[in-house]
């Protein structure tokens, strides 16, 4: 199995080398222009266009339209245009580099995953024990597992009104339910959770998770989960604090059991208020006290909010509100929700450019991450990076753009991948071809996370199992994924150093014990 793979790789290396040389040499040699010259010019266009965008938004209080944006990103020197043949050559070169990196990773790995990646029990044992300390892409309300949901429903005893759920969670625009679900909900008696029998309770509990059938879902079916959660868990305002704190603490306790000691939560708290920002600090202290976990927050804007000018105003408010005290727990901004029809340039410029300018002026330390390249316009990752995002949530569609991939490599923009999420929401058809490993092998600091782990019935150990059993990821690459989660976090330097030291220590012990027990 392994020797065949290596043999196939060697043939591919040779074939790619021939293809690369025949494509590259004549095209560049004569003109004295290399592929790297063209890529560098394209990246210079990124930076130059970014400056124009910053000026447009922050100085002129204007808007950059798509037509002008794409024109500005084009090469200004005709000799340095990225032609189709150049794009192909760049892709070929990257594929070659991926193969070289994979072989190097295999040689450097102290544990040989190839020896047991087809053995589910061994993979499970490996992933349960694999050291990891940080997780960076977590939506609190998506974390609740069945145990948490049952306990909350028992405590809150909400009124279950099927017709209301249909009305709110099946609006046909942002949210949808399947026809059989609508029928089942319509047939439910309107009564409190405690009045249902065991089977009825089970039906209500399942409403908090993506259905097991069909296997994958539209983003609107996924979004319905959040509406249902709000409808059933937020009926009694006096219990809001209970729901919030139990959500965070139950997640943190599970995460600690999986070895994690640092988490970054993406939380929607619009519009930003002093009280909401203070709450981040309170939650951070509570989580630390109860579980030992260090938690930080990123303030999430919602890309589907209309008009877009609302987000623009809130971004300014957020920068003005955030003081050094709040920056202790609030580390950055994010942009989330359905990416279809809500492209990054149009939806993010009014948020990200003011925050980037404030950061440059030393007025804030808020960093930027963005959900991009999950669905919708494949140019979103490129535009997110140009707008100053230091880290990308998902980033899958970056695979379409080798020039933007080069930019991510060279500027070390982190990508946080959530494998189960991407498959369930039809971002990536199968795990085997998920680009996280290609990105990692090209030197992009990739890490793994769980996104909405409760709703997707996953956790960080399961993401590891998915990676190991479906791809040829090597042990040294699993180590890199764990390290990148620390390096790409928005934690302060002291926390990062502490986490890296812990991770190094755990890796040493893990490798020693794994060698002994196999
Ligand atoms: Zn997410």
From TrEMBL:
**What Pfam families would the database entry show?**
A_deaminase
The superkingdom of the source organism is: Eukaryota
> One cellular component GO annotation, for this chain's record?
cytosol
Give the cofactors, semicolon-separated.
Zn(2+)
Q: Which GO terms describe its biological process?
A: adenosine catabolic process; hypoxanthine salvage; inosine biosynthetic process
Q: Which UniProt keywords apply?
A: Hydrolase, Metal-binding, Signal, Zinc
Question: Which residues does UniProt assign to the signal peptide?
Answer: 1-20
Q: What class of enzyme is it?
A: hydrolase
Tell me if Ribonucleoprotein is a UniProt keyword of this record.
no
This entry's Gene Ontology molecular function terms read: adenosine deaminase activity; metal ion binding
EC numbers listed for it are: 3.5.4.4
By its UniProt entry, which InterPro entries does this protein fall under?
A: A_deaminase_dom (IPR001365), Ado/ade_deaminase (IPR006330), Metal_Hydrolase (IPR032466)
Answer yes or no on keyword Translocase: no
Boundaries of every Adenosine deaminase domain copy: 288-504
Family of the protein in this entry: Belongs to the metallo-dependent hydrolases superfamily. Adenosine and AMP deaminases family.
Question: Which named protein is this?
Answer: adenosine deaminase
Which source organism? Porphyra umbilicalis (Purple laver)
